[in-house]
Amino acid sequence: MGHERTFETERLGRLREGVADGEALLLFDAKNIRYLTGFTGSEGALAVGKDWRVLLVDGRYVTQARNEVPGAEIFEFRNRIEGIAAVIGGHAVESLGFESSALNVEEYLRLREKLPEVPLRPLSSELQEIRAVKNGEEIQRIRQAARIAGEALAEVRSLIRPGVREQELAVELDYRMRRSGAEQVSFETIVAAAANTALPHATPGDRRIADGDCVMIDYGAVWGGYHSDETCTWFAGRVDGRQREVYGIVREAHDRAIAAIRAGVACGEIDRIARSCLAEAGLDGHFSHGTGHGVGLDVHEAPRLASGRQEILRAGMVVTVEPGVYIPGLWGIRIEDTVLVMEEGCEILTPTSKELTIV
Ligand code: ZN
Ligand code: ZN
């Protein structure tokens, strides 16, 4: 796709703005390599200089790399660190910025040993910041992922009844997302019932849903490499007074946070708005995670919508808003949407209604 390559060239250009003469950048993260080249393999390395770049892959990926990144210089390695040392050694590199978060200590030490003359410095978060703002094509992919996921959830809703196990519902949801074109699920689907909903990251198990249970479903689809992320908390058969009350408060925190999202607002401010809404009801002590996170090639990426975060929301960022209240041993309620930040306000991309729902 020709226009894709244009995006990738532009992204590489933005990254290179921070590269000095004689400096090179070394990337290992598969999502970052995909973002900058279009290569979708799960392993490799990308070396970028001021006016050159080399994609390093092992033998399994040579054909795929040639097809996906036509015209690029491709280096086939047997051993990744030795390959990198050969490429960097051939390019008069005086300083090497490397992705420290994607390299293990053993590889780092071997790289040090192979390139004793080249100072290594960990890369800053520049690439994360570039990735945080999505273009129209990326937004379309997230929109499509959210649509596929939402349609699958609508089908699974009718399967929720007393006696069905959490795990069965999770498998049904995954199957329907995949059948409708999702390449993968965004993460291991969470279907939790009753006291399991009080664990923010429950794993679906053998628990059978009973009348009156709170049922939390946190799930997403991947389409064209891009993720969606949504949480619905529903009630099986009936809802008690306390659950109805807390649902209303979490919903209010979610709605107020979404109402405040627009370009120019600090991420920490969105978190503060959600948290203070829960605090008004004395529930902030039960909200144990950040309000949201960026979504894109990774399901969790920049920016973080968490306490004190100074990053400013920009048009084109895609973030989640997911306040929750977890009462240990009883139940938890989380409501999550993925939204597109716009100059004025935001657009909710995840399609499922967040009205209180009894299934
Ligand atoms: Zn989620
Ligand atoms: Zn999330």
Could you please describe the fold and organization of this structure?
- This protein has 359 residues and is of the alpha+beta class.
- It folds into 2 domains: 2-130, Creatine Amidinohydrolase, Chain A, domain 1; 133-348, Creatine Amidinohydrolase.
- The chain contains 10 helices and 19 strands.
- The strands form 6 sheets. The protein has a 6-stranded mixed sheet with strand order 4-3-2-1-5-6, with helices on both faces.
- A hairpin with a 6-residue loop joins strand 13 and strand 14.
- Helix 4 (80-89) runs parallel beside helix 5 and helix 9 (241-260) runs antiparallel to helix 10.
- The chain starts with a helix and ends in an 11-residue tail after the last strand.
- One zinc ion is lined by residues 229, 293, 320, 322, 336.
Fill in the keyword field for this structure:
single chain, 359 residues, alpha+beta, Creatine Amidinohydrolase, Chain A, domain 1, 2 domains, 6-stranded mixed beta sheet, elongated, binds zinc ion
Q: What's the tally of helices?
A: 10
Strand order of the largest sheet: 4-3-2-1-5-6
Give the terminus-to-terminus CA distance: 44 Å
Which band does the percent of strand residues land in? 15-25%
CATH overall fold name of the largest domain: Creatine Amidinohydrolase
